[in-house]
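Exercise 7. Given the encoded structure of a 253-residue chain, write a plausible sequence.
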């Protein structure tokens, strides 16, 4: 008995190619005096990471009632003339807005503080001095109890004398960049004794987010690399027992 050949096997496709990130801003010039509008506004959403210690799952939820202020970079505090705008309070859905902030048409070099009782204090630094309003600014926080659960689950000995960094790595189109290597330096040297937790390896929602534990307080240069691409470095301030957050991009806006 003769049988017909079986149908040709279906094509087998290889894994999808890696994402094509936008690096076109790498050659953009630094912001210059006279380029900013008279006023700018900052806005975004306060969110917290909640952890289920039994199932070891995480969720990201809005935070209402957080207090935010915009402050001058390099100032000793955010009081009186060092405060650029605020306070603002996050709404039920976590949204907030600060401003208008007068610029005198020059780049604004500043940062934001985020506070709420029972939560970690957060200092949020932009990737550069600003010459335009910014929306959708990430403002991530933890309940202090959740933070303790996280470091315990990750078996990290987080010292109270050190700070923690949340670094959001994006391309020029603000797309989260997965798989980048974050570098943290103080005094021109790599900071020793830190632990970099790539949240994207834990959950797809965390793509591009790196938590860097045990960073000593002080001025800290943060940057990133992806293959042969080196992202623009900038300096932020780390505070003991607080969180410092920033975005790392390939170049200027």
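Solution.
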């Amino acid at each position: 008995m003769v049988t017909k050949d079986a149908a040709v096997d279906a094509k087998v496709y290889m894994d999808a190619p890696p994402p094509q990130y936008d690096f076109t801003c790498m050659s953009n010039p630094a912001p210059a005096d006279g380029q900013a509008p008279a006023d700018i506004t900052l806005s975004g959403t306060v969110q917290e990471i909640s952890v289920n210690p039994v199932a070891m799952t995480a969720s990201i939820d809005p935070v209402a009632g957080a207090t935010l202020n915009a402050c001058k970079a390099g100032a000793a505090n955010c009081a009186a003339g060092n405060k650029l705008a605020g306070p603002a309070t996050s709404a039920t859905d976590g949204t907030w807005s600060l401003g208008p902030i007068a610029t005198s048409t020059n780049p604004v070099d500043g940062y934001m503080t985020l506070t709420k009782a029972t939560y970690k204090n957060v200092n949020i630094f932009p990737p550069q001095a600003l010459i335009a309003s910014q929306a959708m600014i990430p403002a991530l926080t933890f309940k202090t109890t959740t933070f303790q659960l996280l470091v315990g689950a990750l078996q990290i000995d987080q010292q109270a004398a050190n700070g923690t960094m949340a670094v959001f790595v994006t391309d020029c189109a603000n797309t989260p960049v997965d798989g980048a290597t974050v570098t943290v330096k103080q005094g021109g040297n790599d900071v020793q004794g830190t632990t970099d937790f790539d949240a994207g390896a834990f959950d797809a929602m965390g793509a591009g987010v790196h938590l860097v534990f045990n960073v000593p307080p002080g001025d800290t240069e943060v940057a990133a690399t992806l293959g042969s691409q080196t992202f623009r470095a900038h300096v932020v301030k780390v505070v003991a027992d607080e969180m410092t957050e920033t975005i790392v991009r390939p170049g200027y806006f």
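Remark. The chain has one helix and 17 strands. Students should compare their own answers with the one above.
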